[in-house]
Amino acid sequence: HGEDLFVTFSGSSVGVLYCVGLLWAKRGSDLLDPCSWKELPYPILTKESIPGQFGPGHNCFIKDPDRQEDDLVVLHVKEFDFDDPEDEDIMIAKNPRNSIIRRVHWNRLGYPVLDMQEHQDIPEPLRKIQGTVELF
To answer: Could you tell me the pTM of the whole model?
Structure first.
């Protein structure tokens, strides 16, 4: 994206601590040189990132086949009700992983935002605006 190459990776075990981290390097840098890479010091997806889902794990980025300008992320999660009194380990064991697709947003610094909720997104009619500025 832009001048950066991003790599996401999953870490921990398939449980409530399973999360996704982020590495990036500048376009044109030596990708085999560890010094070319930077790592975000915190996960970009955790059990709190997507309401009702936890354990975001391995994933990939794709282009939306209908809107090539949109980036998508495909990943797996487990559905989970953290208010359920049932033991967490039992809930983890009995709930299968589901594959989901989410739209990738990009923040003002050019980094991917994978946990934006629908109510935070800009409605379609407001995504492209046009205006005129008059100077006096």
So the answer is: 0.72
Which string of b and e fits 2-35 if b means at least 16 CB within 10 Å? eeebbebebeeeeebebbbbbebbeeeeeeeeee
pLDDT (tens digit, 0 to 9) for every residue of the chain, 136 residues total? Answer: 889 999 999 888 766 778 899 999 999 999 999 999 999 999 998 888 887 777 777 888 888 888 877 888 888 887 776 666 566 666 667 777 788 888 898 988 889 988 877 777 777 777 677 788 888 8
The CATH superfamily of 4-126 is Glycosyl hydrolase domain; family 43 (2.115.10.20)
